[in-house]
Amino acid sequence: MRVxxxxxxxxxxxxxxxxxxxxxxxxxxxxxxxxxxxxxxxxAQDDLELVAIASNLPDLLAAVDTHTPDVVVTDIRMPPGGRxxxxxxxxxxxxxxxxxxxxxxxxxxxxxxxLRLLDTGSRGRAYxxxxxVGDLKEIRQAIATVLAGGSVLDPSVVDALVAARRHRxxxxxxxxxxxxxxxxxxxxxxxxxPAIADELTLTSRAVEKHVxxxxxxxxxxxxxxxxxxxxxxxxxxxxxxxx
Length: 243
Prior knowledge:
Number of strands: 9
Radius of gyration: 19 Å
CATH superfamily of the largest domain: Response regulator
Number of domains: 2
Shape: elongated
CATH architecture of the largest domain: 3-Layer(aba) Sandwich
Oligomer: single chain
Largest sheet: 7 strands, mixed
CATH topology of the largest domain: Rossmann fold
Strand content: 15-25%
Structural class: alpha/beta
Distance between the termini: 24 Å
Strand order of the largest sheet: 1-9-8-7-6-4-5
């Protein structure tokens, strides 16, 4: 899993008297099998509470209004249109419930939807392929990441976009040096500065200088947090390969 923005761990379960405080989750999925798999997975976790299940977009939005969850885990395609309802939900919740994290699940690798999900606001958003549903560690990490305000891109999507970029000319590459393009590609894959230094056999200081230069050349302003400048830089890189 590519965690684009750093994630905090799952909040520790707290007790007030006999009451356990858990991460409250709404699931939206029209497939019975996937829905029940998620139910079983989440119900088995003491620190996760499944508060509602929906099978379409209107019911999902109503469930969020009623239960005010911490995180929504939603299919990307479901009734009424079967097109991009999961993305629509994330876009609407960004306005109506900005503190709710959203994990979008997709049956197929659809980079354009992943980019759309993060482009209008990467904070608290994750895009995963449904093949991750059976992996408890992957699902928990995605939930913890969006809960902490981070962002997750499925590695299969990132790898496809990065591979496509190698065969294209684009405006981003013309603004950056070859080394800066290498560094930005690794930022897009979710690597930290120390990990990039190891990958390219550079010093950490050299990587910091390259990242700073990338931010300046891509006009990513200093009033943003460093985390979200990295996310936006990654989106610039990935979006240019999808045009």
